[in-house]
């Protein structure tokens, strides 16, 4: 599954501070050896390229940023993917300043870019971490999100 590959890559290369300058062919070989399907590997790598493009502002036309007082209205397709719990979690993250309207839209874009039938709150949390990690200037938000995910005192999020 594509989400499993993304989580594997995030934990192996990004979160562990491992060497990031990896040849794409070597990366594909490693993922194949780890037991992932070639088709899912390709989809995951394309997903990561699109995340990088968002971060660099190449897809800005796809993401419209609204004012701080506006309310996000989800499309039917977005509501199919993001259940009420996920949408509530996104709103909570905005309220505690982990997400801005821009990073929220990037998260939603990347959630919608996943080719999966199953999506749940735990997957959303990983997507939020990946987006925050890849967008410069969000180091504090990333750290707070990490704390929200990994601190046992935050029972509401586990």
Automatic annotation (TrEMBL):
InterPro entries: Smg. Signal peptide: none annotated. Transmembrane segments: none annotated. Pfam families: DUF494. Belongs to the Smg family. HAMAP family: Smg. This is Protein Smg homolog. The lineage of its organism: Bacteria, Pseudomonadati, Pseudomonadota, Gammaproteobacteria, Vibrionales. The gene is smg.
